[in-house]
Structure formats: C-alpha cells, structure tokens
Amino acid sequence: MDHRRLERLIASLHHLDGSTSILHRLCVVTAESANVDGSGVSQMIDGRHEIVTSSSPTAAIVEVLQVELAEGPCIEVFSSCKPFLEPDLASPRARRRWPQFAPQAAEQGVAAVFAFPLIVGGVATAVLDLYCGEARDLGNDELADALLLADLASLTIGSEGGRAGIDEVGLHLEALEPWAHGAVVHNATGVVAVQLNIGVDEAVLRLRAVAFMTERPLAEVSRDVVERRLRLESWSLDG
Fold first, then answer.
1. I want to staple 218 with a disulfide (CB 3.0 to 4.6 A). Which of 89, 120, 158, 211 is the partner?
2. Can you give the pTM of this predicted structure?
3. Rg of the Cα trace of the chain?
4. Which residue pairs, CB below 8 angstroms and at least 24 apart, start in 71-77?
5. Bridge partner list, 115
6. Ordered per-residue pLDDT tens for the chain, 239 residues
C-alpha cells in the first residue's frame, strides 16, 4: 500500500464541498485523479440493481443505461468480483459483448469504461464506474488511484450510513492535526500494524480512512479496534 497515495486521496476528499455525500465526493475525486470525464456508483440491494450517485449528468445517464439494459462493465464486475476495463467501446469486442450498451453509451460521448468492484464481506455489492470521452487505457498511477478509491468506497458502502442512504447523510469530519493523538488511537495503530504487517504511519492512515468513510469519530473506531469489535482487512492493492 502506498500511504502517500492514500494521504493524497484523503486530502482531496477533505477539500471538496462537504454538503454532498461521501460517495459523490469519491466519484468526483476518482474522475479527477484518473483524468476521465465522469464516475458513478451503483449497488445491488435485495437483488435490485440501483444507482447510488454520480459525478456528472452524463455519468448518471450511462449508469442508468447499464441498469436498464442489464449490460455493461458493472454487470461483468458483479458476476466476477474483478475489475473490468474496456478501453474502446467502438471495438468489435465491445460491440459483441454489449450490443445495446456500447452504441448507446457512445451516443452519450463515452468511448471507454472502467469498472471496479466494491467488496463488502467478500462479495461485490456495488461497483465504481469510470467513463472517458476518448478511447484509451488507464495509466499505472490512474489505475492505482482508482483501485484505492474503490477500497475507500467499499468502506462507505459497508457502513451503516451507506445502508441507510448515503446521499442523505451529512459528513462530520475531524480536524487534520490532532487525529494522531490519544492513547486509544495509539493502541489501535499498534494493533492494526501487527494485524496487517504494515508500518505505523500506514496503520494510522487506515484508521483515519475508516473513520472518514464511515463517518465515525476516529477515537470511536480506534476503541472498536482495541476492544476487538472491529478488524481492519487488507485492501486490494496489498501484497
């Protein structure tokens, strides 16, 4: 895990307008960091495929297309639990795979689509989609950012706030400076470092990320870790 990358992405989330949901801000940051034109999140709820949020009107339209047509990269991700990257929707490969979605997405100005699973409890319960107006692959850094942001989005989807309807939940942030102080945070940092075999700097960043994405105070998350009510899991970029 690149803890500098995590720090940079969390800082970007902090700097966005706090009046929107965390998932919406994740979509905005994902689109910016991957240099694409839009991003969206959809979720399976009781067997129904539903749109959660998007970074732009065009992204929302393309998200709806995947739901209505039951075609597109997010459908592939739900079944495989793996990222699905399509750099050229005009290619014969894409047109054969998605005979309805590919041409209709192209009509909206989308030329490439990249989809990432949001894993909760070992299952892809939601998908983070990226939409690009030009046919191209993601660069290495863009892909790494998208994978890490998908991990962060999974924390939000798996939280009580996400299940309750994330767009209606207000964000309560802790100050950036004092978050590393206090015995309970110190103890939790040690627990996470040992459990995941990572350094203390990365461990405290993970604690901070969990607190941010689940909208809980850092001390409360740390207390749950210390008292073994919460165990932080490895993320997809680890190892």
1. 211
2. 0.72
3. 18
4. 71/98, 71/99, 71/100, 71/101, 72/98, 72/101, 72/105, 72/113, 72/115, 73/113, 73/114, 73/115, 73/127, 73/129, 74/42, 74/115, 74/127, 74/129, 76/115, 77/115, 77/116, 77/117, 77/124, 77/127
5. 84, 129
6. 577 888 888 888 888 877 678 888 999 999 999 999 999 999 988 888 888 889 988 899 999 899 889 999 999 999 899 999 999 999 999 999 999 999 999 999 999 999 999 988 788 889 999 999 999 999 999 999 999 999 888 888 876 433 322 232 233 333 333 333 456 777 788 888 888 888 777 787 888 888 877 878 788 888 888 888 888 877 665 54
100 exposure class (CB count in 10 Å sphere: 0-12, 13-18, 19+): middle
CB 190 within 8 A of CB 232: no
Amino acid at 75: I
Please list, residue by residue across 38-66, b when 16 or more beta carbons sit within 10 angstroms of its beta carbon and e when fewer do. bbbbbbeeeeebeebbbbbebbebbbebb
